[in-house]
Write a structure and sequence with these properties.
heterodimer, A: mainly alpha, 5 helices, about 70% helix, B: mainly alpha, two-stranded antiparallel sheet, about 5% strand
Chain lengths: ~150, ~280
């Protein structure tokens, strides 16, 4: 590329500095951005909080942070429900359930983001093309999270 | 048998998250070699790393998306390819031998080092769109705070970018990393998006891609909560600190620092793959 070709393209990319950037973005799209942004933030914060509670509780009751157990051959939904089942079965409430839920919250964060996007594209934007794309991503993720 | 205490895992993960955030490539690049050096087998290290990638990607993406720089449509379109790639990649890892994974990791790191020499294109972003990219509505604008103006852009070559993203997703699932360098390369050089849109959109895609890979490792029983918990917390803390420091450093410093890290770790992984060390 020569220097002379650069000149006309640069101003074409920009809007004058005085222009209001907010007006460039459709309102609905901005709502979507805020929704997704806060969903992701809430998911990570929930996960980190649950993991800290689990590990600190483990340290208090046993004197160390080590948790020795494996999740073998379980998908995400089995993994989450397994702990609730043991609780309902009368087992005591311990650090393990917090750590498991912390990991589950993290895994569910991008998943919920995609599911929320499906509803947004379908109901708010009525953009069927992107509803279909997002639905495809959500379906593949759901399938993979139900694998066994 | 590894001798990794939760405290040691936490400290290593802080370091990995810190370097990963400064380089923009995520913690896996440092985390996986470090965990394997301390005795964890590479498949467990890959599985643990990919879970932590979800955390760092989601944390960073939350801010970028709210700023309005991330292009959600570009992200959604390309995620269709990356998640399939990640599922295939993770499945290949389960069937692979350890030596092959070390070699693949080394090769990807050295390739990533080479990409640091490529400069993002900045010759204008209002490309003449092909029919498919226009149909996919791959255009947008964002307010650049540094330049004080709104940058408008049109993406191109989506029919090249999509299949290439399958490859980036494959590598992410195979090696448990974000593969951010590859994704940015595709968004920037192939699809012609501005550098800021490329990096932030890549970040959004990384989280969903890592989740697809994680689902395979979870069912395979490779995710040990006792290891995953301190690693997730450490990587998130390290990434938080790394992002703060990044704002004070110049781009050249970051590039030089990361180039050295990539070269050392890449060569080390290759040598272990070929059983030289």
């Amino acid at each position: 590329m020569t220097g002379s070709q650069d000149k006309p393209t640069q101003p074409a990319n920009t809007v004058p500095p005085g222009a209001d950037a907010g007006q460039q973005i459709p309102q609905q799209e901005h709502v979507m951005e805020l929704l997704i942004g806060y969903l992701l933030l809430a998911g990570v914060l929930a996960s980190v909080t649950l993991l800290i509670v689990g590990l600190v509780w483990q340290k208090i009751i046993s004197g160390h942070f080590t948790l020795n157990y494996l999740i073998s051959g379980m998908n995400l939904f089995q993994f989450v429900t397994a702990d609730f089942r043991t609780l309902l079965g009368g087992a005591s409430f311990g650090p393990r359930i917090f750590v498991n839920l912390g990991i589950a919250a993290l895994l569910l964060t991008p998943f919920i983001r995609v599911v929320a996007s499906v509803f947004f594209f379908a109901l708010a934007e009525r953009n069927w093309k992107y509803t279909l794309f997002t639905l495809f991503v959500a379906s593949v993720l759901t399938y993979s999270l139900f694998l066994r | 048998m590894h001798l990794l205490s939760p405290e040691l895992l936490f400290v290593i993960s802080i370091l990995a998250g810190f370097i990963g955030a400064m380089s923009g490539m995520g913690g896996g690049v440092v985390l996986i070699p470090a965990l394997t050096l301390l005795g964890l087998d590479i498949k467990h290290a890959i599985a643990i790393s990919i879970v932590s990638v979800i955390a760092t990607s989601s944390g960073a993406a939350s801010a970028y998306v709210r700023d309005g720089v991330t292009n959600l449509k570009v992200g959604m379109f390309l995620e269709m390819f990356t998640i399939l790639g990640a599922i295939v990649g993770a499945t290949v890892t389960l069937a692979s031998g350890d030596q092959g994974l070390f070699i693949a990791f080394g090769v990807v790191l050295l390739f990533s080092a080479a990409t640091l020499f490529l400069r993002p294109h900045d010759k204008g972003y209002l490309h003449r769109q092909d029919g498919m990219s226009r149909w996919l509505e791959l255009h947008g604008n964002y307010y650049d705070h540094a330049a004080g103006e709104t940058i408008q852009y049109r993406g191109r070559l989506s029919y090249v970018g999509g299949p290439m993203m399958f490859g980036a997703g494959f590598i992410a699932g195979l090696l448990g990393i974000g593969a951010g360098a590859l994704k940015v390369l595709i968004l920037d050089l192939a699809m012609g998006l501005p550098a800021k849109v490329s990096t932030t959109t890549s970040n959004l895609i990384i989280g969903v891609t890592a989740l697809a890979g994680t689902s395979i490792y979870l069912v395979a029983g490779l995710i040990d909560p006792g290891i995953a918990a301190p690693v997730i917390l450490g990587v998130v803390a390290g990434a938080f600190m790394g992002t703060r420091l990044l704002k004070r450093l110049t781009n050249t410093h970051v590039r030089r620092f990361f180039l050295v890290v990539l070269l050392i770790v890449g060569v080390e992984m290759l040598l272990r793959g070929f059983k030289v060390i």
